[in-house]
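Summary for the steering committee. One of the milestones for this cycle was to obtain a three-dimensional model of the protein with zinc ion bound, which we needed before selecting residues for the alanine scan. The sequence and ligand used are listed below.
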Amino acid sequence: VALRRRTIGRRGLLPDTHAHLDAAEFDGDRDAVVARARAAGVTRILAVATNLASCRTTVSIAAETDSVFAAVGLHPTEASRWEDEADGICAVLDAPNVVAIGEIGLDFVRGAASREKQLTVFRTQLGWAEERGLPVSVHNRGADDDLLRVLGDYSVRVVLHCFSGSLSFAEAALARGYALSFAGNITFPRADVLREVAARVPDDRLLLETDSPVLAPQPWRGRRNEPAYERATLETLASVRSAVPDVLQGILTENADRVFHWGTA
Ligand SMILES: [Zn+2]
């Protein structure tokens, strides 16, 4: 069994459950970025949109690229676009390869729109996810209480993307059945608290992502991030959990398949 796991591990099946492949940072070499991801074993990427133009680009990237799937939605920091863009975003929800609604959520730190406005935008998109049986990739900044309260009103599979919260918030989210997705910031030297949280999440609630093009893990910190770099984050996650990377990779793959229903390679 160990030998088989090792072979599977080398071949890949390490999913990146949150990457902004439509970002302008990738305009010059997007195909090469995806090819490098594949060579590094990152054979499933959830490309996550942030506004209407981003949704359209993301859906077309997913249509053209084997290992890429799409999440469409309006990011909370873009909530002021809602009136102009909601219908257009709703129209791409049923495009092929759309496996999630995202990036949606609440941002009370950087978000320009009011709390009330963000709550309305978030709720409507959660309703879209519930109607379609799609999971949600959720952004949270400074909104722990509102986030849990609102999510509690919907029956959806929830992924808390780039989890950076406290242990008590993690425990509340886990009690609800949510998945926690960790990103490259768990590799940063001062992220001890976050690593402690990442060490405690049960196997079946754990996801891994890059949040490319931002949050490059050590040793690429500060540079453009890309899905291929996820291996470095996997190594850190394995080490804090005292897990064998290849085995952890298998667990992450099973979890992502279960959440996103995107099948196996
Ligand atoms: Zn994101």
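Key point for the committee: DSSP finds ten helices and eight strands in the chain.
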